[in-house]
Amino acid sequence: MSKLEKILYISTGGTIDKGYPRNIRGYAFEFQDPPAALQIFQRAKIGPFIEILHVKAFAKDSQEITEEDRAVIEKIVSENPVSRVLLTHGTDTILETATFLQKHFPDRIFVLTGSFLPAVFRDSDAEFNLGMALGAVQSIREPGAYVALQGLTERCDRLKRNLENGDFERIQ
């Protein structure tokens, strides 16, 4: 019998968790509850060999994430001695949060992911990115903070954001 693998999943908001406005006068996307990843995990029928421990840090657009918010994430990680951590996060400041985590927890494995379109959209990249991130957080052996987006999983200090097209690229 194989050992149950525990993965801490921290939700922080970002585009992946945005949904349609709840009232008829609403015009902006609102954060949905529960987070999209929990719904995707449930639909995917993840096997009994993984235990996903979910903690909601907050629900924000990543452009609004502050150092105080990152301290909330730091506290959650400190209180949960799980070695593998998956975070859903907005793509705009995902590298900054990954760098923060890698600095503060050098012995843990983090995989951060998000999406360019909300998970509720039919053509969203959310399910693909989340599946990639879940596979990565289970298989990566070297501690650090990684970003899994657009078919690429790489340590945060080896990635940059192309400001012209928004894509993530390896640093050469």
From TrEMBL:
Domain L-asparaginase N-terminal: from-to ranges: 6-151
Binding site for substrate: S62, T91, D92
InterPro entries registered for this protein in UniProt: Asp/glu_Ase-like_sf, Asparaginase/glutaminase-like, L-asparaginase_N, L-asparaginase_N_sf
Active site: T15
Protein name: L-asparaginase N-terminal domain-containing protein
Originating species: Mesorhabditis belari
Lineage, highest ranks first: Eukaryota, Metazoa, Ecdysozoa, Nematoda, Chromadorea
